[in-house]
Amino acid sequence: MVLPSKNDLSSWFGFLSECAAVFVFLMGCAVLSGWVFDIGLLKFDSPNMVRMKANAAFSFILSGASLLLAGRERGTPWSRRISRGLALLVALLGFLTMCEFLFGWELGIDQLLAREAPGAVKTSSPGRMAPNAALNFVLIGISLLLLSARRGDRIVSALGLAAFSISLFALMGYAYAAEALHGSASYTHIALYTALTFLLLSAGVLFALRGRGWMSVFTSDGPGGVMARRLLPAVIVVPIALGWARLQGQRIGLYGTEFGLGLMVTTSIVILAVVAWRSAQALNRAEAVRKEAAEALARRTEELARSNAELEKFAYVASHDLQEPLRMVSSFAQLLARRFQGKLGLEGDEYVGFVTDGASRMQRLINDLLAYSRVGTRGGTFEPTDCSLVLRRTLDNLGIAIRESGADIQSDPLPVLTADRSQLVQLFQNLIGNAVKFRGGERPRIHVSARRNGIEWMFAVKDNGIGIDPKYFDRIFTIFQRLHGRAEYPGTGIGLAICKKIVERHGGRIWVESQPGKGSAFFFTIPAKGGNGDAQ
Amino acid sequence: MPSEWSARPIEILLVEDNPGDVRLTEEALKEGKVINHLAVARDGEEAMAILRRQGRHAGAVRPDIILLDLNLPKKDGREVLEEIKHDKSLAIIPVVVLTTSQDEQDVLKSYKLHANCYITKPVDLNQFLSVVKSIEEFWFSVVVLPKKEESPRP
Hints:
The complex is a heterodimer of chains A (536) and B (154). Chain A is an alpha+beta fold and 536 residues long. Chain A has 15 helices and seven strands. Chain A has helices at 9-36, 54-70, 77-103, 131-149, 153-175, 179-182, 192-208, 216-219, 223-251, 257-340, 345-377, 387-397, 399-405, 421-437, 495-505; strands spanning 383-386, 408-411, 416-419, 445-453, 456-463, 510-514, 520-527. In chain B, α2 packs across α6 and α3 runs parallel beside α4. Chain B is of the alpha/beta class and 154 residues long. Chain B is globular, with a radius of gyration of 15 Å. Chain A binds chain B through residues 320, 323-324, 326-328, 330-332, 334-335, 338, 360, 363, and chain B through 18, 20-21, 24, 27, 100-101, 121, 123-126, 128.
């Protein structure tokens, strides 16, 4: 098994859970075979020590297997079902054993798997597991049931923690050699290695959540997660270790109860304070780094917004101020032609013709640049807009071109959106205008449709025109990009760039699907709730 | 053509900083049928000086109509318009805003400042000529302008 990278906490947790499951499973197998074949070593037999009962070992086998199956990220329905079955059996066995204790029943389940001679150490009834072990199996059985059903992550967390606490409590009894902690005098006691196995099993259940439920605090990337991961191990280990040390010291007569207690409290305060202080430092460092990153991001965003605004302003001002000298060039060239036509010679007339033609083309380019920059700088407000009205308006505007080409334009019912109305008209006009303009030999057939796609509407404008080679799909949306000579199809190559800008201002995307000679389909999306509403 | 026009040329004040535009307007008016006299102010301050007959413009003639560009050096066309329309004696002179700006804000602001009309300069020469011609026809033939009154100096 390859260790997962440590920063991927979720899979790290999964790995820990699997380890715990395997350990529990093997422990159960060992002890049960020890019972069945009566091998003392496997039962961890030792004088005056309570043993793990056969039923408990069996339950551990079931729990381990169930946990292994339930904890898997991608389990098949069958593995889940088996896991649930095993978990149910664990809970049932625990529950029945508890009933035996509570109501004094004798169900005959205790000696079913293996017989234990009467009079075993700290055992109330031969072969019967301790009551706290039975309770633990009930808790763990239910939590495994939920875990394999992928439900109630919080309940799983709660049950897992309860089982963990019970196991810890029993274990403390051994650590501090206080019998009352690992069993009541009249009932069977929980064995040391049973308590340990329980501790691992309940930890395995918690880890199997892979950071879901209450465990999400530990896997979180936030400062809370960092703190939880740093503090919790100390919070668990320090009191246990200090408590044990204190007891040892008291037992060998170094100090009395009061002094020992004072020593323990002081030491734990000092140690925990140091841990808390270090964690706080780490948090502060993390916070400083985060703050710096956030500030850098804010700076970048601001710079970007400013340079964007400047660029748009530049385009607007440039195209505006470029008009003036251009008007001079074209006006005086025309005046020259008007006053001196025929007096300049053929060549002179031709040259003047080039000047006026070039000037008028530049004029169109500048106007288009202006229109392009206006999409961002002079956008209208976003308001509820009926797209079928938008389409009707578009068809009115394109009236002449549509009549001349004899285009047949069909439309599905179109939705009402929150959008910039006049920009939508411009969008439809450019797309439908293109469909009419780039028609093939036959009569143009154009179809406009829209369908809801989750949170957005997807529009399509399909035609039977000349189509586009896929290698140009990206290029056609850039400004002043043309695929045809001016003589074939007039235009500056701004239309689709404006379409793209309008769609993006509304928070959507635009793309094309086409093949040469087989028509084109332009698609664009617009969020149903309206774009980012950045109307200025 | 009303007989009084032949007696006295129409006085036009063109406020325009671009010599090319001045020349084009002159050419356009030359082709027109109305006898006119064109005075040119190159910036807003000069325009106000002419209108108020200040300094070296003491002998300036009060115009019958003002053709005003908006983007001017020193004093902006919008300020000139505002000053004219706030001056009781000058307010009655029709002001035709003749500019390259197609900005809706400019259009709106000009009318708010009581411009008498707003015209965008066409790029095409023929269109420009016909625009000047229609200004001429409308303001000098169709419209009745107020009688000239000699206003006291401000």
